[in-house]
Every structure is written in structure tokens, then in C-alpha cells.
Amino acid sequence: MHNELMPVACQILEFKQETQTEFTIKVATGDLKVEHGQFCQLSIPKIGECPISVSDYGDGWMDFTIRAVGKVTDEVFKLEAGDQLFIRGAYGKGWPVDQFKGKNVVIIAGGTGVAPVKSMINKFANEEGFAQSVNIIAGFKDENGILFKDTLKVWEEKFNTIYTLDRDEKEGFRTGLVTKFIEEIPFKDFGDNYEVVIVGPPIMMHFAGLECVKQGIPEEKIWVSFERKMSCAIGKCGHCRIDETYVCLEGPVFNYTQAKKLID
């Protein structure tokens, strides 16, 4: 049986540059198990390790979308297909996907926050009818920050999508913060049969959550995910603790009834 605390040597299958500072690596992960919304610890010997959300996965592989912003991620950025990386996990509580079955699912994602929902949205795309409807608001800071361009096109064909840029103007995108467009989601047509997912930088989740509540959405229908600085991933080191909550164990996905106390 695999010891989930033990890093496993995995080979990089593919390396894709997404933006100037973000990239996606496809890694052969063997029999490591993962659920939508979970994260893994990626490490390079003698350099360190960092927690990264699984942005997609399939039989024997996982994708990780990474921003080069620190010692470990900068080193991962230098790797190529064929190189080795060490992985432990997957960890944390993912999205309550079974609860979304047959529902109208609304996903509000900002920037790299699109990564933790990508595999779940792809599941909805591949399993037609799993969700009653899928409504996506995905926002990026500017044209240079757009992630998963090919995937966004696929989602646009299958789902109700609103893609936004905070300030740039670009064909196919609207200008403004994601919170501005929440009122355009036809919640009144959904009756009681919907769930809302919010993921992105803490300030974006804070204001998107407030806007949803203002629109009359019950807090228990809202789900958020946040990657706080994880370290051990098993609730021992206290690095990710907010008050008495260990994000690595109880999250990264939380219901808004609890999350609203953690975001502020």
C-alpha cells in the first residue's frame, strides 16, 4: 500500500507554457489517487516542496498548473519532458461533485483559480447530463494572464460562459471584475436546484461571496476553495491554520457557511 507521506518519483510527460509566468506540466503519476479539487505536494530534492492544485487528471497522469513565483516553482519551470519530479498526495477535501449531479452549477473563477475547477468542469463537459446546466464566469487580470485558451473555447461551445478581463479589451472577453457579472446568471430560472462554486484570490472570493449573498443565494449553496500556504499537508505543522481550522485537512474546499469566517 502506498504511504501518502512518501514522495514518489514521477516523470514529466509534457510541459506547456500557458503565460509568461504560468505553465502546466503533465506528469505520469502511476497509481496515485486524486479527486477533483485536491492538491499534491511537488518537490525537487535539495530545493524544497510546494502545494499545487491538480488542474486535470486521467488514468495514470495528472496536470499541475504552476506559477513561477518562488524557489521551488522557479526550479520546476526549468524542467522538461522526461525529467523527474517528486510528488506526494493527493491531499485535502475536494469538490462535493456528487452533490452537483443534476444541479445547475455556477462556477465563478479568477486567474489561477480556474485551475482547481478545470478537471471538474471537464467532467461536466465529458459526461453530458451530469449537471443540469453549467454556467461559468472566468476572469483574468489582462490578456497576458489568460489560462487554458483551448479549453476555454471547448467550454464556450458546451456551457453558458462569461469570460472577463479586469481591464483589457479583447474579442470574446468582457471588461470588468467577475463580481460585476454575477447578476447576469439566471438564478431565478434555477428554482432551488443549483450550487455555486467560487475560487480565486482571497479578495476576489470575499467580494464574489458577498455579491452572491446579496443576490439572495443561501450561504449553504456556495462552495469555495483556497490554497493557503500549505507545508506538511497532514495537519501537523500548523502552517495553514486559520484560527482552529487546518486548511490542508478540512479544505481546501469549504462550504461558505464556514469559509466566510476564514476569508475575511
UniProtKB/TrEMBL annotation:
User: What UniProt keywords apply to this chain's record, in alphabetical order?
Assistant: 2Fe-2S, Iron, Iron-sulfur, Metal-binding
Q: Which PROSITE patterns match?
A: FAD_FR (PS51384)
Name of a matching Pfam family: DHODB_Fe-S_bind
Q: Where is the FAD-binding FR-type domain?
A: 5-97
Q: Which SUPFAM superfamilies does the annotation name? A: Ferredoxin reductase-like, C-terminal NADP-linked domain, Riboflavin synthase domain-like
Picking any one GO molecular function of the record gives: flavin adenine dinucleotide binding
Q: Does the keyword Iron-sulfur apply?
A: yes
For activity, the cofactor(s) needed are:
[2Fe-2S] cluster
Textual note on the cofactor: Binds 1 [2Fe-2S] cluster per subunit.
Q: Name the positions where [2Fe-2S] cluster binds.
A: 232, 237, 240, 248
Per the record, the domain of life is: Bacteria
For biological process, the GO terms are: pyrimidine nucleotide biosynthetic process
* Protein name, per record: Anaerobic sulfite reductase subunit AsrB
Recorded source organism is Zhenhengia yiwuensis
List the lineage, top down: Bacteria, Bacillati, Bacillota, Clostridia, Lachnospirales
